[in-house]
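Follow-up to my earlier ticket, as requested here are the two runs.
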Amino acid sequence: MIKGGNLPQIRAFLFKGLLLIGFSLLLGCQRAKDVDYLWQDYSQRLAHVIEQPYSPASFLPTQVTRPKVQESPSPTISILETLSLGHCPLGHLIADHNSTLGKVAPDSQQLIYQIRFIQLAPTCIDTLEEGELKTKLKQALEQKQANAMTYFHRVLTRDKSITRSLFIGYDSLVLDEMHAGRLELESAIGQLLTIKRHIKQRRWQQIDTTQIEPTLAQMAHQTLLQRYLRSLAYSRAQLTALNDYLQAHGASVVCRPGHANRKQEILQNVFHKYYLAQTQAYLSQLNQLHYRLSEPLIALFGDSGYQTFIEHHFGEQPGALPEQLKAQMRRHVEWWQAFRESCNIPPPKR
């Protein structure tokens, strides 16, 4: 039985509990500050003050397309010849590859087979007497060494774990969580780049084929790369459209001598609160990711079918998306500097 004297305390306790629940629900319902939210929020606030309609830029990102694969003929080793290699680990490798499962193996397993063949063949060849089989194995070894990079590039451009990472969808990076998953992504890229360098330098025995599948699985679990790509491309498109909008309607916000410049002061507050404090902070972290990822990714995908796509999104040449975005950022700040100087409005107090 509840005593009457305790009712006020119970009510106060319940009220505090309801407030905490309501506050938690409110936090849970707040929209994440991803690239769509930041540009929509900033542009709508500007348009509301300028009092001119604004239409966001249409967004059609460039997508990767799988290059066509040209199969290279390889010397065929018959079942009987494989049986005569039973004393070599290479014989078991060839037998497994010639099985039904081996013939439909994914590109990653095809690469592993090529590398393992190259690693095992020399020792096995040395055990054979001169003859047709030894000649075939030597020819196969030379061909696989020459085509190893082709098989590696095939993994880069056809394996789902990588093609999904480069697909620009609807998810983007969220402010204050920009670097989540970066270490895992850098580790996977580094592992793949090490394999590529060993192939290029023909250091076959240093390639750990047991790490290829786990590395690809690591790529499959990360989403940072595809979210970065969308954030970059979307920001460049929206900032370009917003700069064009400000350029077109600049005359409507020019300060007039002898008149109150309240609208202009509000505009500058919007710039400081929603561009400098949020959107520019977002773009700055985006640039940090570009700085860390660009060099290894360009090296990894160099000479592959995705080289052009990667250079467009990570390169520093004129026309590359990072350079386009930097140019629009400079253009945006220059517009605001000219606006503030023409109005002689002091920066808002922080």
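Run two:
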Amino acid sequence: MEAGEDIILLSVGQETEEQTPAPIVSAATESLHAGRHHYSAVAGIEPLRAAIARRHQWLTGQSVSAENCIVTSGAQNALFAVCQCVLEAGDEIVLSEPYYTTYPATVTASGATLVRVPVQPDDGFRIAPDRIEAAITPRTRAILLNSPNNPTGAVYTQEQFEAVVDICLANDIWLISDEVYQEILPPEDRFSPASLERAAPVCVTVSSLSKSHRMTGWRLGWAVAPLELIQHLYNLSMCMSYGLPPFIQDAAVTALEEDHVTAGVVRDAMDRRYRLLQDVLKDVPGIRIFNAQGGMFVVLDIRSLPVSGFRFADELLDRYRVAILPCDGFGPSGSGLLRISLCASEEKLVVAAERIVEYVESLREGVDKN
């Protein structure tokens, strides 16, 4: 491969060809010109925390105050901070595998241990509540669930979340709910464990504007949690970030106060792109594309082909100029699976899918010749 060659990039969850909506950008520039570039409140400016609380109520039906919300430098920072506050050396946290690539380092930085529960495609990539319960030990301090899931797109049902919340209450452990992709689900498919009133003492909701508002580079996220945990997160933020830029927060207020249009635009785009990809790949012998319930990714199963996920991704990039990710990086159970991002244009996705078909056919021809 030569430097400067055009690559169809389907390896990242970022719509590189789309821009943050203009009103949000304008809010940031107007704030800068107004001199809003000094220190700000460590937990976030009050209008933003109040806007997050209103958005949380809109999504869950449960009322929270601004004091239950803390602003962070993206959802990743929120997850890291929450783990630092609720976990310590010797603790365990239960999560499904495949999982987002940063989870292991995020958890182990606290000294805690991941208890991985592998999930399978035929189970919809969802971890059954009874398997979660079986993984709990006296050292368990939290369960971490990501719905819609990255990389699999799995979405948990209300019934499943109700069972998990009851497990947390019975065992006095935290439920950390990573909901970065939640808002780009159709409204009828959305369910947060925070929607359950009884979950309030044990539930921590982590989210951001990165996916729903095309704001990945703005690094604006938050956590919604019980007041006692928010105080610990505040103390950690004092020495970790000392507050976020106020002009970024002003733009976030505009994003949250608008009519929720951007998330719907993103959702419709993901749905169209998924259907285009599925139309090309669904009947190709040797591979299987799984239904994307939500989020920005689909999973491709190549386990019947004579190549590993790493080799498939490497050769697809070298020979066909398409970049996708082997799911081995999301945990050992991801072996033989690949994650395809839906964040490229429809035209590029169709071209990429056709190149995947061409590569798969070349692999099958090689097997037939042998």
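The only thing I checked on run two: DSSP finds eleven helices and 13 strands in the chain. Let me know what else you need.
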